[in-house]
Amino acid sequence: MPNDNTEFADETQALSGRSGDERLPFHRTHRGQITMISSAILAFGVVVGGYLLGDGLRRSREADRAVTVRGVAEKEVTADLATWTIAYSATAPDLASAQASVDRNSQDIRDFFGGLGFAPDALQPTGVNVSTSTDNGLTRFTVRQRMALRTTDIKRAQDAVRRQFDLVRRGVLLEEGSGMAYTYTQLNKIKPPMIAEATRDARRSAEQFAKDSGTGVGGIKSATQGYFEVTARDGDSGGGWGVSDTPFKKVRVVTTIEFYLR
Known about the structure:
The chain is built from five helices and eight strands, in the order αββαββααβαβββ. By secondary structure, the protein is α+β, with helices and mostly antiparallel strands.
């Protein structure tokens, strides 16, 4: 009669043997799945990396595509400040006589501007100078006086310039350097809209270039604002009659802008 323990051991060994045979294919399948997943992840990484690299190169090439153009804006303005420095002198054998002559000229000048409607405080003395010279042993005294007119009444200032020879007829000897200067003081107010107009003008030029080359215009890569230039509106500003001698001005600004092309 067989031993019960022997039968139990044989049965256990048989079961254990079958279990081992059955686990072997399972482990091989599991390892194969892991290998396939790893390969898929690696392939996906290669694809994504290639795309990012290609997109980066494309963006780099696009960043190098740019066009540099200039934009111009001009505006005509009228001066809002007039200043006139009047220099005159008198010479006499003695200082008192020279000073008295200059005092009469000063009063003639005040009467002249008062007659044109200027307020008394619009005209102020700005300096005086006394010098001596000797001619054949005789000493002569020269007194030089300067007065300045400052006004925002441009039309009245122009009228004064047109009638300045009335001073000469009164005996006032106007020295070199006497003249009206017109200034435009509101430049800061017109700078922003002029810069905007110059930028629009530059973009129009860039768009025309892009159209001719079959591309498009992107954003601004770099920009340089030129300085604002104020010149005479009419004629050449060179020589003695220049930009300060006329109340009619032309303000001009040039900007240099680099646009991306896409």
